[in-house]
Write a structure and sequence with these properties.
91 residues, mainly beta, 4-stranded antiparallel beta sheet, 3-stranded antiparallel beta sheet, globular
């Protein structure tokens, strides 16, 4: 996280990203981890030595699997087989 405006990408075994028109699509049988530091509120990163533990407040992490999409322009993740059902808000 030396540059929090850069999106960190971790690829699992047998996994990749297909990138077309600023949209990344996860391919393969494993996971893609995206680490987004744009909203970090606090960190000790600049005050530690190599190998020491890092503390980070408000780090965003996305986990993608096959056919999920991440839009690099809007910085949003679309989960292909989402099972999320939002709880209705009380009025």
């Amino acid at each position: 996280m030396n540059n929090p405006r850069t999106l960190g990408i971790g690829l699992g075994e047998d996994t990749g990203l297909f990138i077309h028109n600023d949209v990344m699509t996860a391919v393969g049988s494993g996971l893609v981890i995206l680490v987004d530091g744009r909203f970090i509120k606090d960190t000790n990163l600049t005050n530690i030595n190599l190998g020491e533990p890092i503390s980070i407040d408000n780090l965003t992490v996305h986990v993608m699997s096959m056919n999920d999409h991440y839009d690099l322009t809007t910085k949003t993740l679309t989960i292909e087989n989402s099972q999320f059902n939002p709880i209705p808000q009380d009025k």
